[in-house]
Write a structure and sequence with these properties.
Elements lengths: L14 H18 L3 H7 L4 H9 L9 H14 L4 H7 L13 H12 L5 E4 L15 E5 L2 E11 L6 E7 L10 E7 L9 E2 L11 E11 L3 E2 L5 H37 L1 E2 L2 E2 L4 H29 L5 H25 L11 H9 L8 H13 L6
Parallel strand pairs: 1-4
Antiparallel strand pairs: 2-3, 3-7, 4-5, 5-8, 6-7, 9-10
Helix pairs in contact: 1-4, 4-5, 4-7, 7-8, 7-9, 8-9, 9-10, 9-11
Amino acid sequence: MKSGNDLSLNFGLSESEALYRDQIRRFARTELAPMRQKWDQEYQRPQEMVLKALEAGLLDTEMSHVMRGIMIEEVGYADFNCALPFLVTTEPFELNRLDGVPDDVRNPVREAVRTGQTIIAVGFTEPSSGTDVANFQSTAVLDGDEWVLNAVKNSISWADAEYFTITCRTEEREKGIWSLSNFFVPRDTPGVQAPRFWHDMGTRGAARGEVRFEDVRIPKNYLVGDRGKAYLQMAQLFDTNRAYIGLKCIGAAQASIDETCEFAKQRKVMGKSISSYQGISFPLVEAETQLEAARLLCYKTLWLRDQEMPNSKEGGMCKWWVPELTYEIVRQCLTIHGHYGYSDELPFEQRLRDILGWQIGDGTSQVSKLIVARSMFGKGFSG
């Protein structure tokens, strides 16, 4: 048996990770936090903040997934709406790299993404199906040297993006998940309709909406990756992204706890700080404890991805548990502040709205539990 000194388990950050955390933390709390309400009120993508972060040398496509997680948590602490734009600028997923698309097309697009000039939106969910990929209605038919796409994609973050990757059926329906392929579609392609924006409760900087693709013709080589392998690409994206979702929720919840602890030390009732009452301090202790456990789960999920090891189970755990946990933590912090906490002068109401949407997006809690259950009971588990 190995002695304690021989164990390789290490819960600390490396020197470079700790340095980066301090840098992104300073940037987020000085540059992003003051702008928190702007993107929420104006339904705008915070691209100018992405440009500032790039100028500061804080976004890099060579970052590890763990390093991206550090970024997402710190950005989520300051301004939830900036987390996703910061993430996609670092090209965390293979889908964003447009594998298979000709270099003379994909290289300028990727460079524009990396320099904060544009963004690639993902069109996956449809009005009649999201998780139920077997029910996808979108089609792509090969006609000579062109694909003809017909699709309605909704719940698209940045529905006004200049570029899309969309998932369509290219094979017989009987092939199930292996009947789907991904395609690169510039917005100015004939047949791409103007977006219909949704007015979401929260995460309004995502400018979510619906886009129709009607008889859209794209070159044959705008197929992203291998034909019939979209499901594998999307699974890799979702498994890891669920940890990122967890970490931005954790950032918002940690900010709420920190603010509430300061408030509790200052607020006096009957001559004593309310932090001295167990009815106030113990729930915050419980919240801090649960948040630390959730944080470790999320970073483990990203660490597994960096090691090129499976992380579907852990990603599912992150997705079903962390948004629910952090929503409850923020709600509790709001109530400790009393009626003032219920106003929009404090950030709690916005954080609640922002986090709530991630109990739905990228797989509901029920779907995420099904993923975990299948890892426990076998792929045949149907719930």
